[in-house]
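Students often ask why we bother predicting the structure of a whole assembly rather than each chain alone. The short answer is interfaces. A chain on its own may look different once its partners are present, and contacts between molecules only exist in the joint model. In this exercise we take two input lines together and write out one structure for the complete complex. Read the inputs first and try to guess which parts will touch.
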Amino acid sequence: GAVVSQHPSRVICKSGTSVKIECRSLDFQATTMFWYRQFPKQSLMLMATSNEGSKATYEQGVEKDKFLINHASLTLSTLTVTSAHPEDSSFYICSARGAGAGYEQYFGPGTRLTVT
Amino acid sequence: KNEVEQSPQNLTAQEGEFITINCSYSVGISALHWLQQHPGGGIVSLFMLSSGKKKHGRLIATINIQEKHSSLHITASHPRDSAVYICAARRTSGSRLTFGEGTQLTVNP
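Now the answer. The structure tokens for the assembled complex follow.
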């Protein structure tokens, strides 16, 4: 099946710094990518949806200036957490889908972010 | 009431047992996903269903569109099947997924 990779798998950063998470679709063209956040023992929460070449659509309550999403190509999307704060510590998961209603949505393995 | 509900919330089984996890939804959907999340956090897409039944190895997923219900079955369960299983429905309108709360499965040797 299709594969979505994320890098890094784990990252520790200091408060105030920025960290970038990459999401790649390895064997298909991802016209739509989704970024989720997951707190312990909770389900995935959609942060934003991005279509290649367009600005991301953010969910209510998600700060677009804090969580910068770039989807510049059909195989790569990045999430940059700016001015990281300990409350941003979480598990971030990307997901990618190809064109057309019948295309399955594939999930990346996730990135564990810890802000100290 | 959540739009996507799973049962049971927690399930403990002995190795070799047949396992069923249920998912009910209350909205019109174009597809339903079954996902597996291991303790380390990584999510694996198991199935995407829009009708009928799919099988992959020891895993079987079924969906009944009229009854708005899907099931995930695991035959000959093994301790490595221990994980959280999540169903997620994609509405007919829009592209977002609505997630169930997940079922924590523990298979004891």
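Check your guess against this: DSSP finds no helices and eleven strands in chain B.
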